[in-house]
Design goal:
Helix content is 33%, strand content 21%. Strands 1, 2, 3, 4, 5, 6, 7, 8 and 9 form a 9-stranded mixed sheet that branches. The protein is an alpha/beta fold and 295 residues long.
Amino acid sequence: MATPTQRTRIEVVPHFSRLQEWIALDEEFFQQEGLEPEILPNVMHAVSSHRGDAYGQRPQDLPFVQQMEVVNSACQWGTACNAGAGMGKLVPDLYTVGRFAIFTKPGSKVQRLVDLRDVPVGIGERAGSHFTTLMMLEQVLPREHIRTVHTGGPGQRLLALLHGEVEAATLLDPEIALAEAKGLRELARGEFLITFWVGPKLTGDVLNAYFRALKRADEALAQTPEKYIQLWERNIPPTLKDEYDYSTFGLGEKFVFEPYTEEMFQNAIQFAQKWNLHTHIRDTQYHHLITVAGL
């Protein structure tokens, strides 16, 4: 194994809805691939707990605004729009599939999605919960009767539900499991694509090593999930710390080691344009906005 002075330093924001970064850290897969990772859990928790910061000032934006050479993830729409706005680049070699679910506050009379007509749903603006909520509600409601409210990160949205501040909100993992544990009613759930969002100067060699480590972690999780399931504790926002049965949380995002294609990218951009969520974008050319890892 390379010594610390021989390894390439890389800053990593662990993604709150999966475990692979933690597994790669604990099993020293990053180090074995020649990397010296600096894990940034405070950024992860800030993303989950912010109270509705403006675009460009959200915790997930700041590493890119500050020109840090960081590896992060976002929903496919968010990564595409962020890269197009000049914040980071998209890695097209792979993607993951995450879960989302719409829950209601305790005591809500809302029973079905159609009952959300003109009812504001808590989301994180221009992030996964925003796009997935629109994608879900447009199936049953006219556009003019779909309402969203920028409530903040997924942990903050769960707190808003529990405090009765919003009638409904869209949650991601691990907040889905937390909401279930707290007895909240789920109206609907679905899955969505998550892509890797990285600093524009990270080289293909470094990214290749990073994703080799994550692939090893993904394989380890599939082989012995019981060994790693307790790692969910690291992804719980500080304001939601409690005793939970992590065996009910599932395995988080599913990795797909297949290309995130130009067609997929353009579909994401078009959906953002359809909902007028593209106003920060300056460039929509796929090949201008990607950094290839060479997997």
